[in-house]
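Bench log, entry 3. Co-assembly request; chain sequences pasted below exactly as received.
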Amino acid sequence: MTHDEKLRQAQLVFYAEDVSEIEQELDGFLELSGARCAMLIDRGGHLVTRRGESVGESPESVAALAAGSFAATREMARLMGEDDFNTLFHQGTRESIQLSQIGDRALFAIVFDDRSNLGLVRFYAEESQGRLRELFQEMTRRQAERVDEDPARGLAADFSSSAAAALDELF
Amino acid sequence: MVQINFAQKQVNAKIVYYGPGMSGKTTNLEVIHQRAPEPNRGDLTSISTDGDRTLFFDFMPLDLGTVAGMRTCFQVYTVPGQVYYNSTRKLVLQGVDGVIFVADSSPDMMEENLESLRNLQENLSEYGRSSEEIPLVIQYNKRDIPGALPIEVLEEKLNQRGAPAFEAIANTGQGVFPTLKALAAAVLDSLHKSSGSSVPASAPAAQPVAAPQAATAQPSAPAPAAAPAPQRQTISMSQTGFHKAPSLPLQGAAAPSEAQAPDKGARPPQNAATTPGPQALGGLQLKGGSEGDGGGLRMAQPATPPAPEQPPTQPSLSMAVPPQPPAAAPAPTQAPPATATATAKPQTPPANRPATPGSMMRPDGGSPPPRRAPASKSFPSKVQEAHATPKGGKPKSAALTVLIVVASIGLGAALGSFVLQIL
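Structure output for the full assembly:
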């Protein structure tokens, strides 16, 4: 496995300071673009953070579908001999959503309505994408240096057993 | 990879149900959705064909609540089982943390089971991952069908790795939760890469790569803080509470032999007379995809009224666009209608679908949820508007017309005065 592949495979843990920087970037983007909501989603479809207004009742489902949709598009690109389709856009009557790739690790999802427009969103999204990409690279690099450490060391020692017990209580 | 988000105080893990077509993967998910308490379950989203076959994936978030200060959530997916959909099946495996392989116990399905298991290994290896390193639990489903293969045979053929294994009749709910709990425990356990450093002795020990030590079953319906032993486990239904099932109340459940149709028993019936409506399930089902196009999206949303009268075709536009400077793309000009990818149409009500005899009972004595609700909600879109005349087109032509009219009047006036002067 190459060094790059190792970096991609390494578990990414989101610490408060990292997410704070990401959120600052997303807040700035929302202010400039007039978009409704900005979400950062990891490649597995988990929501990393969301800023702005809520979208629907289940942001987790939106994140999962966005990741699935983007993954399908990437596969299409591969079949067509393209390196990547790095931006995906869905237009609705009231709301539209743009998905952009942030490196290999994340997706940048932007929901906007008629208070903004595609040109504005894309202009500021490209700027933010670059900065988010740098943030992720830095996070990945920092965590790759600590690859031998237990990524879950910040969790309580009894986290696993407590979670299993919670699942037992559920069913 | 399990996402640990200390900023949001959240741990997210991705679990995928894998297996051959019609083995009962979606049924497992439906039972979990049906039985999970309202605050802990998210919407059940299904991207499927009109024949109730999973097209891309089914998905539901399962929230365990706050555990040791962290909100813990499992994102549970199924894959399409049919061979044809391998490309989409592979996509769902991206970032997976644990796999439940749902095998069909029918003798006719052994080859499909083996093929699906091979396919799982291939697809994982394309992500640079090995099936040995990922927590895996096997579920032998449809144990009630006549001629179901003996567990020993299934174990020998499908479980050479010695993963924890469970018997199940998914459409009655039996065996569904022990399987899920065992995998969840294994996934949570795998969080701690350095074994023993921070994993307490009482932690769940459903080791995914446990050495096969005993072909006989070990009781492993995980009790709180007492998880499956780290050895090969084939859990029979009686051991997991098949008859008693404190966690699986079976009021009114039929005997196993009567509880499931032989072939399509893994699919719940669609008979409205015997199945709860979407309201009873707390769900609006939302589906994109006309009856004819074979694609659909369904989301069960609690307490949302159905909207069956939406227009049948409301294409939503979806396209990939390369990044361009805003000056080149200020307006939705890159939106050819040919790229519209989804249409929405009200679904055929379940009442029109044939019931599956013998598969009516669900663990709580009612019927399994219908795969499709009568209600549907269309996705509105504005494809036509997107291709309207570009902004500024109409004002320009109007200004030109005015200019021509003014010029004509001026010219006419000048000509008139010239003629008058001559006269």
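DSSP finds five helices and six strands in chain A. Chain A has a mean pLDDT of 86.
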